[in-house]
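Record type: monomer structure entry
Structure origin: computed from sequence
Chain ID: A
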Amino acid sequence: MGRYALAAALAVVLALFAALWWLSARNDALTAEVAALRVSVASAQHALEQAETAAAVHRAYLARAEADAERWRAVQNDLQSMEGRDAPLSPLLRTTAQRLFARP
C-alpha cells in the first residue's frame, strides 16, 4: 500500500506543478496584455489631448469668424443707412456749394 500512496502523492505533486506552470504562463500573458493596454490608454489620452486642442482652436476660429461677420453686418448697415445720400443736390444747394467751394 505504500507504493500506491507514493504514486498518488507523486501524481498530486505533478498536478500541482502543472497547475503552477499554467498559472505562471497565464500570468505572463496577462502581464503582456496589461502592458499593451497601458500603451493603448496612453495613445488614447494623447489623441484626446490633441482633440481638445483642436476644439479650442476651432472655437477661437468660430469666435473670430462671428466677430468678423458682426463687423461686416455693421458695415452693411452703415452703407444701407447712407443710401440716398448721394442724390443730386437741389439747384439752390448746388449754387451755394459752388460759391463756397469755388476753385480760383
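Annotation 1: The CA atoms of residues 98 and 104 lie 11 Å apart.
Annotation 2: The mean pLDDT is 89.
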